[in-house]
Amino acid sequence: MDFKTSNEEIKTGVYLLQDGNEEPFNIRLHLAKDILTIQEQDVICVSGEPFYSSERTVTIRRQTIGGFGLSIKGGAEHKIPVVISKISKEQKAELSGLLFIGDGILHINGINVRSYRHEEVVQVLRNAGEEVTLTVSFLKKTPAFLKLPLFEDCTCVPSDQSSGTSSPLCDSGLHLNYHPNNTDTLSCSSWPTSPGLRWEKRWVDLRLIPLLHSRLSQHIPGSDVCRKNAFQVVAVDGVCSGVITCPTAEDCLDWLQAIASNISALTKHNVKKINRNFPVNQQIIYMGWVDEKEQDSVQDRMYSPKFLALRGSSLFKFSAPPVTTWDWTRAEKSFSVYEIMCKILKDSDLLDKRKHCFSVQTECGEDLFYSVELECELLIWEKAFQMATFLEVERIQCKTYACIMESHLMGLTIDFSMGFVCFDAASKDALAGIHLLEGGCNHRPATMNQLAARSPIAEDLRDETLSSNSG
């Protein structure tokens, strides 16, 4: 469900969360401009004495028509306490705010039944007499366990819609003699310890993920295996959302794009603020998370998260986002923008199951392979590399490299407005070159000699040649 406020767009939805080794349970996602909130359902005390307890105690009386008005499912054989799966309309009206679908039954008349099997709990209830005192606690796993659809108003479906067929477990039938037309209310002989207490089932915050510098991943960590309709969000401090599973691939992609869009907007805003402290030739073009393919052949399909930043004349690689000025001096590696080449990989170029990949070829011929989660992220990186290269070429204008040709020390000067020339380092005589003219390219020896002479390191090359000859 999506809706807009006056200031920003909000996106919400109810999905499954796999948190560590726990069983999946229902959570609600709430996406705002700068934060992703993960909420779980819980029953909380909303009035009465100012304390919170996850356990509630209520005493109910067996009725001639309707029995206890409850149905239960689960048990120790299913690795979960017996839980309330239905509450009759009359019972629900009488005990509003005391019992909820999804409550686990912990004690019956003081007997601890947490580890009882389903039939054992049924037997205890049948022998409980006309009055039974239940100690219950809402279990966050039970909505998914009972396969109950949850609505945005935080209420479960009415009991007449929660049929036994919604779960592979059989109903205990403790709503004996219950008839849907029965209008008799079921009395309650005693209330919780404090008569002023009132309980409500609500969504409560489980985890808050700040989106600035957060990273998205559909893949199982370190691998090229993509989860089906699932993703996780990892905050810059390492806090992980857990694996969020959507019902369809379309839902999953929609959430990925929405979260990625918010992260990108926050990154751009942050870059603008940081650039105020840097001179023009050291401005950040773009930065963000990628997954780098391990170069070790033993770990052929291993990936690790890296933070790349295009700033000024360099591409920086970090293990974590740079926050202080000092952090920029502690990059794992840095490369000159005009000495690397970025290539977006087509399907035929992909090395494994990872999609949305690009490679960076360094000046030493090494290929580094990176992966992002979405095609839109790939396009952003491509544009960023193009922009960084253009700005750096425009800034340096002319670059000379030392090289060897037929055992002679040579200089290769590339002038981005005039052309290139290869010249003898000692005499500065041009041996070959191309001069750029409006009408095309021409060989212009005189101009090439001038181009060699204006090379910023020509004198250094000449001095090096003379020194080596005298030696």
TrEMBL record:
InterPro entries: PDZ (IPR001478), PDZ_sf (IPR036034), PH_domain (IPR001849), Syntrophin (IPR015482). The keyword Cell inner membrane does not apply. Keywords: Actin-binding, Cytoplasm, Cytoskeleton, Nucleus. Residues 283-390 form the PH domain. Its main location: cytoplasm. GO terms for molecular function: actin binding; structural molecule activity. One of its GO terms (cellular component) is cytoskeleton. Adapter protein that binds to and probably organizes the subcellular localization of a variety of proteins. May link various receptors to the actin cytoskeleton and the dystrophin glycoprotein complex. May participate in regulating the subcellular location of diacylglycerol kinase-zeta to ensure that diacylglycerol is rapidly inactivated following receptor activation. Belongs to the syntrophin family. This is Gamma-1-syntrophin. It comes from Esox lucius (Northern pike).
